[in-house]
Amino acid sequence: MDAPKSKRRRFNWILSDYVRSGLKFYYEWSARLRGKRFYCAALAGESDYNITVNCDQTVSCSCQDYDGSGHIGDLNKNTFKEVFFSPTARRFREDLAKGKLPIKTCTRCGDLRKVSKSTVKTGEQIYAGPTPRLPYRGMLLENTVRCNIDCIGCDRESAARIRTNLQMDLNTISKMGDLVNELGLQKLFYLNLGEPFLSPNIGKELPLLREKNPNCRIIISTNGIILNTDAKREAAMFASHLFSRSRASMRKC
Q1: Hey, is 249 helix, strand or coil?
Q2: Which is nearest to 38 in space by CA: 118, 91, 103, 95?
Q3: Residue 9 CA to chain centroid, in angstroms?
Q4: pLDDT digits over 80-110, tens only?
Q5: Around 71, how many Cα atoms within 13 Å sit in the side-chain half-sphere?
Q6: Are 206 and 190 in contact, with CB atoms under 8 Å apart?
Q7: What's the rounded Cα separation, in Å, for the pair 90 and 109?
Q8: Among 16, 73, 210, 229, fewest CB within 10 Å belongs to which?
């Protein structure tokens, strides 16, 4: 990466961090003054998006978890159910129900919801909003954190530094296919912080996922630049939806 671009990215994310800190303070005090509390649709199991299985099998509550602050568990150590109801996920839900944002990324998340303080449920577990359940609508699966594009608006390099693996192997992809089937997911977003078609196994990954989940909508976002072989184009046919990001839009990121 060239030095000027590296400096621009660093400035971008330092500024972003200050903005999120300010928004966190504002959201929390605004909710407190208005008698409101929060809940997360993703952590309630009601979201199409955001719950993310990263390429090293850590699980994040947000698609923008560049620094790992949103990690709720690790599928190398626990089942998905254990991760989704882990002590960390429980703490996040309880913080939200108390009117606190557990991580700064919450301020940029479309799954953040407000509810009246009077609706907060107490007991063995404190939470607001619907009773947490396993995801059934959708989630993200990151097959790789590698990318052939260096967008200023993406702090993928920070995420790559904390991944213990940069690429899912086929055995893991197969397990993820089984997980999608077990959860009965309606949608699988095959994307996150890397370029899906940069995986050397993409020609086997997508047919495998489709075989295990014939009725699931598999959605892929790609920059399209390396969708340049018959094998990759054939693999893309196993997706339900394929979105291509233009170079112009990536420059604006």
Answers
A1: helix
A2: 95
A3: 21
A4: 999 999 999 999 999 999 999 999 999 999 9
A5: 15
A6: yes
A7: 18
A8: 229
